[in-house]
Amino acid sequence: MATSGAERDESGIDGWRKVAAAIDSMRRLSMPMLLTVVSSQMPPLWIDLSTGRYHWEPPLSALPESPGEVTVYSQPIEAGNPPYPWVAWQPMDPLLWEIGRRAFRDHRAEWMRTGDRYALQRWPNLTEIAHTPEEIRMIATLANGFLTAQELGLLAGADEATARRVLDRLSLMGAIKTASGPVAPPTVVGGEDTAVPGAKDRAQGAGLFARLRDRFDGRQS
């Protein structure tokens, strides 16, 4: 699989923050994108932003608190031609909710602005995500209009820090909108040495899939 970019991060919770930032950046692009997350602590993770699905071999309950050393690859894909049709893809909301829970535990999402007002843009599938009654109250409250994190906390009976974390997770899921518009044009995953995007190559994609599987299996043996 030809890659259009790669982004490395240090081990720890910051690894999930980097994954979250890549997801937010790539979602803002007009072209369909596939993200591949390669980690020292877990099998490869594929996120198809064009169809809102992901593939990860273990159950989502096995998602580590820390992904270890992380590399995120981004690749444009063909509209209407989803990658890897032979794997079992799953709806993306539960994955993003769990990534957000880990990524924004101690730090805000970098694209969120203090003082902005947010409202619910779509209801997440609450039957698929692990949630608390407090989180449900906040999601329902956001359905009634634009609120700051402080206002959301006051109306839902939660502290402001908890309200911010819920807003960050909902933003990662693309489930809320802001009254102020987007923060800025999306950043590109990778640096100046990032490879130039190219057309998707199925044979190369299958080869990378096999190599990543072999790499993970070797660590397990």
Report on this structure:
The model is unreliable at 1-12 and 183-213 (pLDDT under 50). The protein is globular, with a radius of gyration of 18 Å. Helix 1 packs across helix 2. With 221 residues, it is α+β, with helices and mostly antiparallel strands. It has 2 domains: 1-108 and 185-221, no CATH class; 112-183, Arc Repressor Mutant, subunit A, CATH 1.10.10.10. The chain has 6 helices and 8 strands; from the N terminus they run E-H-E-E-E-E-E-H-E-H-H-H-E-H.
End-to-end distance:
26 Å
Q: How large is the share of residues in beta strands?
A: 15-25%
Strand order of the largest sheet: 1-5-2-3-4-6
What would you report as the Rg, rounded to the nearest angstrom?
18 Å
SSE order: EHEEEEEHEHHHEH
Q: Give the overall form.
A: globular
Number of helices: 6
Helix content: 25-40%
Number of strands: 8
Mean of pLDDT: 79
Largest sheet: number of strands, sense, barrel closure: 6 strands, antiparallel
Structure class: alpha+beta
Question: How many distinct domains?
Answer: 2
- Spans of 5+ residues with little confidence (pLDDT < 50)? 1-12, 183-213
